[in-house]
């Protein structure tokens, strides 16, 4: 495919993943660009590549997932959830994501990954007895941040053993994409190759 010979794309795998979740409903290029805080030209290239691998269809009301795209989304949802806005932490927008069947991890390394990807801070939680707790001492999140715990329970579906990543940043797109980044770090080996190929 010809794009591989061109310049390095101006979007990341995190942008690709976020876009696939956004495309469940028809959405226009401008709305994607605003949500991800990337240029419309980059979004155009991204959508073109998704079209090349038969992941999206387009109509007057916007772009949306094709049959192949919907299957791909289901595969991704088996690995991790969509990143959801869960309020503010330290006065900044925060997003949370559920990672299913997480491999062995070190919380500090995952927090560092989030910060490397433009988050100002991150919190790694595990689900025990139906609620998010800190893995270090199994202290429930609601003991220290009740509102955040309630917001997480409202927007995310999780089960015992799942990992929950909460990231916050000065702007929503950085918070959202840093949450996806941690999920991708944990599930890198299981991400479909055709998606990884879009950013090489």
Automatic annotation (TrEMBL):
One of its GO terms (biological process) is translation. GO terms for molecular function: aminoacyl-tRNA ligase activity; ATP binding. Residues 12-71 form the PH0730-like N-terminal domain. Coiled coil: none annotated. SUPFAM superfamilies: GAD domain-like, Winged helix' DNA-binding domain. Keywords: ATP-binding, Ligase, Nucleotide-binding, Protein biosynthesis. Pfam families: DUF4443, PH0730-like_N. Residues 94-186 form the DUF4443 domain. GO terms for cellular component: cytoplasm. This is Uncharacterized protein.
């Amino acid at each position: 495919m010809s794009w591989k010979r061109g310049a390095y794309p101006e979007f990341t795998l995190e942008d690709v993943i976020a876009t696939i979740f956004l495309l469940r409903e028809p959405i226009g290029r401008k709305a994607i660009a605003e949500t991800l805080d990337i240029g419309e030209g980059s979004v155009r290239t991204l959508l073109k590549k998704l079209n090349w691998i038969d992941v999206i269809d387009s109509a007057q009301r916007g772009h949306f997932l094709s049959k192949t795209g919907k299957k791909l989304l289901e595969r991704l949802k088996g690995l991790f959830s969509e990143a959801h806005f869960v309020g503010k932490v330290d006065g900044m927008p925060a997003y949370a994501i559920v990672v299913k069947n997480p491999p062995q991890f070190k919380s500090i390394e995952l927090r560092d990954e989030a910060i490397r990807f433009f988050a100002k801070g991150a919190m790694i939680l595990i689900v025990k007895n139906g609620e998010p707790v800190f893995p270090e001492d199994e202290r429930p999140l609601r003991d220290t941040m009740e509102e955040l715990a309630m917001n997480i329970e409202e927007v995310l579906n999780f089960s015992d053993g799942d990992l929950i990543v909460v990231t916050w940043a000065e702007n929503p797109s950085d918070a959202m994409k840093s949450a996806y980044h941690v999920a991708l770090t944990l599930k890198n080996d299981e991400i479909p190759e055709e998606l990884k190929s879009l950013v090489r």
